[in-house]
Write a structure and sequence with these properties.
It comes from Zalerion maritima. The protein is α+β, with helices and mostly antiparallel strands. Helix content is 38%, strand content 24%. It has one domain.
């Protein structure tokens, strides 16, 4: 499990018609999964909140290899779940019928964040062309809590990701 997640609360989308449409799709997804959840975790408070960014945090000096491995396992489970929801294979719960082509296409990239001490690092997970193998790009540091400029960079990066989440929906 990761420490934190950035999720979408569809009820807060604007305009209200967009919120209602998103909540309807989320409800349909929840009904089609064995755990009645919209994501690969059955953690009840998140059951109807789509997870867009996973965040793993470690203290300064703790192994980043362990954190990367933990994040990789988590993302792999999330990719597998999404493939079962949107894919058309034998393990597909919904037979690939959920979501528009644009929404399914947006699943090509899954951002995550690794926080280690003061450093915040954006990591990108994507699928290889065969649609089976996953790759995690270790990315770049996009902010730090050690300096005022680093905090501004962090704030901008998180706001940009929030905009990406809202526009991906």
């Amino acid at each position: 499990m990761v420490g934190f997640a950035v999720c979408l609360d569809a009820s807060k989308l604007e305009p209200p018609s967009r919120a209602q449409a998103a909540m309807k799709r989320i409800h349909a997804m929840c009904q089609s999964t064995p755990t009645s959840a919209v994501d690969h975790t059955d953690f009840l408070p998140l059951h109807n909140l789509p997870m867009f960014i996973s965040i793993e945090s470690k203290r300064h000096g703790e192994s980043s290899d362990k954190a990367e491995l933990q994040l990789g396992v988590w993302l792999s489970a999330q990719w597998k779940f999404l493939a079962s929801m949107f894919g058309s294979g034998p393990n597909s719960h919904a037979g690939g019928s959920l979501g528009t082509e644009r929404q399914q296409k947006s699943l090509e990239v899954m951002p995550s964040i690794l926080v280690r001490g003061h450093s915040w690092r954006l990591m990108i997970s994507t699928l290889k062309e065969d649609g089976m193998r996953r790759v995690i790009y270790k990315g770049v540091e996009f902010g730090t809590t050690q300096t005022a400029v680093g905090v501004y960079k962090l704030s901008f990066g998180l706001q940009w990701m929030a905009g990406w989440i809202e526009n991906t929906n």
